[in-house]
């Protein structure tokens, strides 16, 4: 089973659903997609496997707690994204910024050379 599958979406329930809601949703989905009773297009065995796996995870309180924890985004420390390393990573994603900097230095240098050589009076 894929780690990216959202078991709550598979069963069509909210994250704060009770154990009874999980069981009722599983029974409803199992009746609908059971391979012996499914009348829709295609093979329902893969869908039924996802439904069974979702129910297995969400019906067991320790498994559900671990799954809910895995859905939570990782916490970042304040110091992890600061300093020169963060600016270097940001610059890698914006190559136009480096191009702009180089072109402005070239234009300013050429302008200064032109002023120094073409303006009389020094």
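Q: What amino acid sequence fits the structure above?
A:
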């Amino acid at each position: 089973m894929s780690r990216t599958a959202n078991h709550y979406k598979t069963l069509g329930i909210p994250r704060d659903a009770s154990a009874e809601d999980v069981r009722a949703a599983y029974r409803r989905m199992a009746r609908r997609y059971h391979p012996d009773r499914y009348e829709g297009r295609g093979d329902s065995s893969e869908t039924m496997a996802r439904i069974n796996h979702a129910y297995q995870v969400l019906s067991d309180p320790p498994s559900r707690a671990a799954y809910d924890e895995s859905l939570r985004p990782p916490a970042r420390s304040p110091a992890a994204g600061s300093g020169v390393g963060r600016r270097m990573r940001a610059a890698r994603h914006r190559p136009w910024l480096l191009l702009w900097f180089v072109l402005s230095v070239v234009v300013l240098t050429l302008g200064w050379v032109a002023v120094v050589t073409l303006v009389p009076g020094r």
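Q: And what stands out in the fold?
A: DSSP finds six helices and no strands in the chain.
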